[in-house]
Task: structure prediction
Amino acid sequence: MTALKACIIRQIETAGPISLQEYMALCLSDPNDGYYTTRDPFGRQGDFTTAPEVSQMFGELIGAWIAAIWLAMGKPEALAVAEIGPGRGTLMKDVARTLGKIAPTLHKAARFTLIETSPRLAKVQADTLQDMEGTFFWQESVETLPAMPVIIVGNELFDAIPVRQYVKTGSGWRERLVDTNDEGDLRFVAGLGSLDPSLLPPNANTAPLGAIVELAPARSALMQNIATHVAAHGGAGLFIDYGYGEPAIGDTLQAMRQHAYDDALAHPGEADLTTHVDFAALGATARRAGLQCLYTTQGEFLLSLGLLERAGNLGANASQKVRERLTGEVERLASDDQMGRLFKVLAISRPGIAIPGFAPSN
Result:
């Protein structure tokens, strides 16, 4: 039994069941035993691999997107190029390197900012970026961004922000809680707390008993902070995650440990806990701040930015082995049966800014 699991069990036995939101927050962010505060979970040696770790092309295309947005904004002389939840710093490294090559004026003007709450990961990021040209800053929250335009990127950010779950019972929708069973181990139970029916998806009335609805007030709060800054100071945001475009019913909670699925209650603090992202809810939050929102799949986004062309460039004078690797990276990032359709992309900005990577119908 992990130390954190024993602590959670003691807390429940003392004070009663806890919400899934509280459970996820403890598992991921506990100062002493939380998943992100005690380890580097990324890459082959960790528990999962993100797109920047799959291929340098991902970060290069994001860098090209940032350069295009900067031009569309009128090339402001000072701005923050920020990443929130920057992992090992791989994406920021590729973005900064790309901007140095294709937009040196922007590279010189940019205040490269990494928004990170884990001191351990901040150290990893600093090591990744130690030989890079540019001015890099670290901060813990969006609220402390300087009062200037920002182009902010979040890759696999919102999926790890804790959510609340509600289960349909014979007496209505009740919050799903984490409790202990007779053997003293963790289990899910239906609590007494309910929710405003207006927050339920349209098909909630016909859902069967046992159906799950996920709500993410913490995600909406973070998007509100980001959107407020963009609305007040200018800029844009790009958010890439796995999720869905319309409110839906279903339990999407999953745990990843050593590149395999795990029981979400089995190893608190030792497995990554995520749920799928409701992009409609995030978009609605940004629109309430007066911003425009565009939405597509990761595959469509990367292909429209020139993923195939970039792979062809890199492979033009390379060995057959390198070309085969590049082909595999393209398929991993953009194929419908891999990351291409599961992962979605949301862009936000002030109205009137031309945002590349999205079809006109979006």
Summary: The CA atoms of residues 10 and 16 lie 9 Å apart.
